[in-house]
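Exercise 7b. C-alpha cells:
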C-alpha cells in the first residue's frame, strides 16, 4: 500500500500518567518526526494518507485493556466513539485533501488537529487523494486520567491501513515502497469547549500490533 498523507507516518508524543508515546521516525529512518501534541507537522517523504507515527514500542502485540478501566463505562464508550468519529472525519477529508475542511475540527483539536491539517496539506500539494478506509480492529480505553468532565481517556487501537491508500488525481495508485499493515495507534481524548476531541495522536509502524 502507499504511504498515507502523513508522508512517512510521523510520530506523535505525549505523556499520560504511565503512558508515553514517544516520537518515532519513519520506517525509512527519516529523522524528521512530528509531535501532534505540539502541533509540529511532518515533512513530505513518501506517500500515504495522513497519519501519525507510533509509540515507542516496536514489537508485535495486540492492545489490551487496562484492568482498571471498565470498557462499558460512559467515559470509555464516549472516548472510543470520539476516536472512531475522528477516523471517519479523516477518511472524508482525505478523499479531497482539503486541509481547511472544518470537518477535521469536529473531533480533533490542538496538536492533533494541526498535525492532520499539515499532513493533508502536503499530500494536497503533491496532488494526491486517498481512497478506501482503515480498519479499526480493537479500539480500547487504555487509561482514564481524572474524573468528571475534566477526565482524559487514552484510547489504544490496532489499525490496519492496508486498504487506505493514496492515488493521483487521474486515479493512479501511488506506490512508494512502504507497505501498509497493522499499526499500534493511540489517541488522547479530552473535552474541548464542551466537546470530546482527540488532542494528541500517535500512529506506529506496520507490524506493531
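Sequence design result:
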Amino acid at each position: 500500500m502507499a504511504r498515507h498523507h502523513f508522508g512517512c507516518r510521523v510520530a506523535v508524543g505525549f505523556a499520560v500518567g504511565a503512558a508515553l508515546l514517544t516520537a518515532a521516525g519513519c520506517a525509512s529512518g527519516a529523522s524528521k518526526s512530528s509531535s501532534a501534541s505540539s502541533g509540529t507537522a511532518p515533512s513530505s517523504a513518501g506517500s500515504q494518507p495522513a497519519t501519525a507515527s507510533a509509540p515507542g514500542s516496536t514489537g508485535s502485540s495486540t492492545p489490551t485493556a487496562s484492568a482498571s478501566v471498565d470498557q462499558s463505562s460512559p467515559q470509555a464508550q464516549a472516548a472510543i466513539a470520539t476516536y472512531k468519529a475522528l477516523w471517519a472525519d479523516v477518511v472524508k477529508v482525505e478523499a479531497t485533501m482539503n486541509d481547511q475542511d472544518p470537518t477535521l475540527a469536529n473531533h480533533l483539536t490542538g496538536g492533533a488537529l494541526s498535525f492532520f491539517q499539515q499532513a493533508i496539506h502536503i499530500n494536497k500539494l503533491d496532488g494526491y487523494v486517498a481512497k478506501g478506509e482503515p480498519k479499526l480492529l480493537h479500539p480500547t480505553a487504555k487509561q482514564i486520567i481524572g474524573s468528571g468532565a475534566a477526565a482524559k481517556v487514552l484510547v489504544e487501537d490496532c489499525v490496519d491501513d492496508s486498504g487506505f491508500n493514496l492515488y493521483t488525481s487521474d486515479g493512479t495508485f501511488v506506490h512508494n515502497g512502504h507497505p501498509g499493515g497493522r499499526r499500534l495507534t493511540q489517541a488522547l481524548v479530552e473535552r474541548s469547549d464542551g466537546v470530546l476531541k482527540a488532542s494528541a495522536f500517535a500512529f506506529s509502524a506496520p507490524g506493531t500490533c
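Instructor comment: Residues 10-25+35-57+67-206 form a domain with the Nuclear Transport Factor 2; Chain: A, fold (CATH 3.10.450). Helices lie at 74-94, 110-125.
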